[in-house]
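chain below, 474 aa
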Amino acid sequence: MSQQSEFDARRRARALSISRRAFMKVGLGGFASLSLPGLLRMRAEGAVSSGRQKNAVIMVWQPGGCSHIDTYDPKPDAPSEYRGPFSTIPTKVPGLRFTELLPRQAAIADKMTVLRSMRQSAGGHPAGSMQLLSGDKDTRDKPKPKLPDWMSVANYVRSQGSGRDNPLPRYVGVNPPTTYNGPAYLGDAYAPFIVGGDPNAPNFVVPNIGLADSSEVKHLGRRAGLRQTLDTLERSFDRAGELRALDEFESQAMTLLTNPKTKEAFDLSQEDDATRDRYGRNTWGQQLLLARRLVEAGVEVLTSSLRGPLCGRVNNWDDHAVNHHVFDALKFRADAYDQAVSALIEDIYERGLDDRVLVVVTGEFGRTPKVNYQPSTGAGDASAPAGTRQPGRDHWPRAFSNIWAGGGIETGRFIGATDKLGEDSIERICGPGDFLSTIYHHLGVDWANTAIEDFNGRPTPIITEGGPIPELIA
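prediction:
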């Protein structure tokens, strides 16, 4: 077949796919008020089921980037314009010190490994996020990702099997990072089932799961029965198994709506008060408790973004002086952050999930080691009135820290180092390819040999450089 013929064939296939999507939208219109993307997200595509649950990852995302110097990589001997105002405290790991903002995590440091030598090359939030989450080397900020993030890739690769008997979605985002990442050319079928809202709110519910009213279930069954009339259509339309895919979408959406296991997994009231208190009776604490519940129930990829009012005035970790008084902001969010993350890590170990479930806590980059002062653009939590000069730290991709726990890895240690000012990673330098392949390795994804066709039909490797970090693999 000539190159032009191959191009025409791909174009016809894409046109058929678009027609199928439009057709499915009509065919399923009004089905339990679910849109096509909703149905696609709920599709329980999975590898061959076994008696043992698959490995899982929980990624806790710090949108905007956490100051490494003020948390996991303090520099107490640096000049005052670098080191910040926080004292350091010992952790349970000899030679490892955190700042005073993280006493709970310091107390369980033997259950984590701190990577202090991460680095990437993009200074903007979009490009930095895309580098770390998808491996896109472009340093320019783009409005949407060119490459699929690791979460969507894992969802896609694990779907290339023969069924999955767990009614829960494989990939769930509990207030997930979605601004600068996504499935790209994989399509919405591999995006997360998104849980939004505040899990700490007394009226918190997850829509479109676990209908309790038997009459509603019967009504859905009758509506689903109407779909059988689609079988009278000309089967030549089904050249690529499109209607069979529709059958599966509908079946899995029905399962999510009617299977009691789904409702139970998302129901935080099933947890006792002591456990909920332990995580913190706030949005972040209950997000991470829900994350633990879901991976324990069989969700394989779980992301949760720590953003919103608990961060301070601008609702994220982007602690420029114009946004926040950086040190007030870190103090403002420290207690909720420290409590939620330490509770999640402890719970993973106490519930025997630590071999199967890997926890990764990170942002897209660190913050400038040298403090600068600028006028605030507005008053609010952790920010002085507009016009007030206050300290801040800006974007810094040359050095940052993240923490890893569970996943069967050896914990109670730290990897790598930055220079005396925290400006550059200088020992055991790790980049996005190392970060991604480490996660893929845990999930059983063949990071070295997997390539996925992009919009143009070109096989695109999921990793182009780096490899798993030896200390972070089981």
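The CA atoms of residues 408 and 469 lie 14 Å apart. The mean pLDDT is 85.
thats it, cya
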